[in-house]
């Protein structure tokens, strides 16, 4: 009996994961957890539901029993980092990141859209420090005035004390600000694609000191978060944006390879299945590409394994589930492809618009619509809906998974779904 109990505890510890940043521990929406909840409503199978002050689309991140997310208190012009108890939803602490005027933005964006990242010791957040002087918006169809600003990165300890703050450079975008930081070794890395002199940059985690900063060439806003993988003998940080798809060495910012296009602007993050790096985007044209992430220099003509246009998303990020590449477009139409060759197995309407990025666990894909309805799909040759669950609240943030529970931030509340392991 004692051995069985120990084995059960060991299995739980092996499958339970923290969700430390944008799209989870691997940055691609995948969770190793089993037996996640598949059925709930706004009242059923809800461990707790708490009101979130202010407004924001920042997705929750989880480290053990702490939930971290960012919100904007518009009345006081504060961007605030919240720390909640995962078991109860109780607010443990609340710290002001920055107080700055409210920036102009796209109607689908918010003033607290960047998801933080944590290593369990510190929490790293990005915000925009707004200049009150307005300028004419670049790269837009209809002329208008916007607020430029500075790209700020800040670090807090797990008790809510700010340890450092760094101004990385200017930031100009008619659509507002969003840039989720990622961690690599002793670095905090950010994507500064915007409508001015764009850049990628890395800061020291402990001090905030700039370690490297490399320019991007095309002065075009994008909001994609990089992923980092060891591919062959190289560490590769891969991202789409700035009218390109490119790979960099995360240790020093040196570029490995680049693919031109396939479009100008990107929001969705990339995914990798061990063979291909997949990109979906963007504006003004939409494409899905499967890329062989090898070679050096410009590999546009040599390393695209397959390409399709129909079914591509702009904002929601896709997932890979076993041999399948699965995606929900912004209009709520989902597609399942064979990841190997791009064969479309099915294309079906989930219902409603979609902004949230997909997650996957235990062979299932979870898609959350803007109306708060989660469609749970089993990818395969046939379209199979496992469940549809309605929170009856608007949702623009992406879900998080930890300790057997799913966490979804609505426009007004944060939901803890399922009993979990506690």
Summarize the structure.
By secondary structure, the protein is mainly beta. It has 1 helix and 36 strands. It has a domain of 173 residues: Beta Barrel (Lipocalin).
Write structural notes for this entry:
- The structure is a single chain.
- The protein has a domain at 54-226: Lipocalin, CATH 2.40.128.
- The protein contains one helix and 36 strands.
- 49% of the residues are buried.
- The strands form nine sheets. A five-stranded mixed β-sheet has the order 1-30-31-32-33, with no helix packed on it.
- The longest helix is centred in the first third of the chain and has 14 residues, at 2-15.
- The chain is mainly beta and 422 residues long.
- The two termini are 22 Å apart.
- It is 3% helix and 44% strand.
- Strand 34 and strand 35 (405-409) form a beta hairpin.
- Residues 4-14 have low confidence and may be disordered.
């Amino acid at each position: 009996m004692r051995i069985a109990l120990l084995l059960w505890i060991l299995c739980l510890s092996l499958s339970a994961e923290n969700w430390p940043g944008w799209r989870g521990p691997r940055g691609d929406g995948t969770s190793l957890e089993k037996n996640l909840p598949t059925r709930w409503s706004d009242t059923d199978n809800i461990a707790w539901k708490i009101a979130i002050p202010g407004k924001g689309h920042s997705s929750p991140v989880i480290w053990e029993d702490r939930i971290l997310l960012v919100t904007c208190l518009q009345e006081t012009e504060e961007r605030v980092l919240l720390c909640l108890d995962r078991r109860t939803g109780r607010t443990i602490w609340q710290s002001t990141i920055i107080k700055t005027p409210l920036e102009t933005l796209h109607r689908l964006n918010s003033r607290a859209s960047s998801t933080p990242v944590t290593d369990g010791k510190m929490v790293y957040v990005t915000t925009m420090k707004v200049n009150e002087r307005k300028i004419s918006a670049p790269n837009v169809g209809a002329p208008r005035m916007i607020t430029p600003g500075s790209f700020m990165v800040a670090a807090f300890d797990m008790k809510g004390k700010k340890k450092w703050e760094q101004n990385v450079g200017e930031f100009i975008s008619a659509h507002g600000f969003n840039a989720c930081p990622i961690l690599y070794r002793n670095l905090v890395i950010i994507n500064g694609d915007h409508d001015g002199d764009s850049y990628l940059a890395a800061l020291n985690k402990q001090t905030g000191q700039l370690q490297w900063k490399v320019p991007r060439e095309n002065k075009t806003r994008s909001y994609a978060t990089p992923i980092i993988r060891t591919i062959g003998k190289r560490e590769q940080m891969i991202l789409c944006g700035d009218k390109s798809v490119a790979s960099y060495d995360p240790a020093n910012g040196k570029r490995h390879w680049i693919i031109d296009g396939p479009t100008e602007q990107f929001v969705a993050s990339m995914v990798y299945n061990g063979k291909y790096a997949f990109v979906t985007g963007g504006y003004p044209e939409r494409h899905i590409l499967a890329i062989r992430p090898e070679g050096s220099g410009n590999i546009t003509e040599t390393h695209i394994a397959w390409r399709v246009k129909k079914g591509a998303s702009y904002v929601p990020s896709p997932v890979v589930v076993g041999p399948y590449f699965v995606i929900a477009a912004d209009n709520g139409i989902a597609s399942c492809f064979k990841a190997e060759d791009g064969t479309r197995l099915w294309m079906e309407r989930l219902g409603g618009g979609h902004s949230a990025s997909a997650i996957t666990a235990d062979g299932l894909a979870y898609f959350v619509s803007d109306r708060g309805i989660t469609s749970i799909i089993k990818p395969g040759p046939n379209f199979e809906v496992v469940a549809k669950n309605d929170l009856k609240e608007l949702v623009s943030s992406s879900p998080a998974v930890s300790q057997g529970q799913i966490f979804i931030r609505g426009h007004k509340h944060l939901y803890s779904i399922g009993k979990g392991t506690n």
